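quick one: glutamine bound model?
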Amino acid sequence: MKPVNALLAATGTTIFTVMSALAVEHQAINLGQGFPDTEGPEDIVRVAAEALLDHRNQYPPLTGLPELRAAVAAANQRFYGLEIDPAHGVVVTSGATEAITASLMALLNPGDEVVLIEPLYDTYLPVVKLLGAVPRLVRLEPPNWELPRAELEAAFGPKTKALLLNSPMNPTGKVFTPDELAFIAALLRRHDAYAVCDEVYEHLVFAGARHVPLATLPDMAERSLRIGSAGKTFSLTGWKVGYISGPAALMSVVAKAHQNLTFTTPPNLQRAVAYGLGKPDTYFDSLAGGLQAQRDLLDAGLTRLGFRTLPAQGSYFITADFSPLGFEGDDVAFCRMITQEAGVAAIPVSAFYVGAAPRHYARFAFCKQIPVLEEALRRLERWVAKTPLTALA
Ligand code: PMP
Ligand code: GLN
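yep, here:
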């Protein structure tokens, strides 16, 4: 038989699925895949349930229900002062995952170069390659994950079509600073390039940091596609409702990509997300406040056990250097070992790199209930106490 698509055939199952399956197999507490272990707000879920019984089950409009597009535009204005046309500047997608693919499809022709920043989320690179575009990777280095300005500048050239920016960033928890964003904006301007802004963690930002969308910088609104995710904003990750906002000229092409990917997104969920985006500021503040308390608990606990944690300013994740524990194996071995033997799953950070990567960091999700995090720490503590780690390396 003729060979199937070579790139997809060579792509492994995502690390999030692999580690979640291992966690189930070993009854481990899953601090790997990033999903909250509580339901999102009941009032939002109720709107979705009621919409199912309210004859809202046929195809909604291609670019999204008008009420959700209006809510996305209003949220852009309310949180960031961004003017978005609800009729022509928003496309609702089935998750941010589709939004990323649709945005890249809309912008890229084969041979175009795309600047990607490592460590990077696992769908970016395969999609860029499937579109026949050429990735130009720039790497942030732990522990500070600062933007390496000279390298970024060198990655841009006459063929650069777009940069993909994830802030707040998975897995590092980094929130790009206004100064870094200004540097990026200057490069985009100089090279007449677009930005695909994966901002799924926009509302999960902690005290001391502030999320500034790249689109709010001078001249950036006209060249940015800004992506949000109801899954993250309302702690309903299984819903897979995403939204892209941007200038009408780009969004009309994004809509064509969406038309060919999924065409529409379930209408009852769209209706509920429209309702959710209208929630008062107190909802959004308490979402971040609650997560910050969970982050602090996990951070302090891991530090007490001997991990060297890196600061997380946003997202669901802490990255922790486990080498001070004495374990000399790599991150894949470490994450498998703690899942199987301590009963706590984590994600090896090398999964977010192409080729050679740091091999001594594990990513822990803290979007779990406090007693669950406490139990995870107790399990790790018992395991660290009884395990001669250097012997296992
Ligand atoms: N981008 C990043 C950086 C993510 O962490 C996630 C989380 N899954 C996504 C995109 C995808 O979001 P969604 O579940 O809405 O597709
Ligand atoms: N974004 C989530 C994470 O980083 C997982 C999403 C998925 O499993 N594809 O853990």
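The first strand starts at residue 29 and ends at 30.
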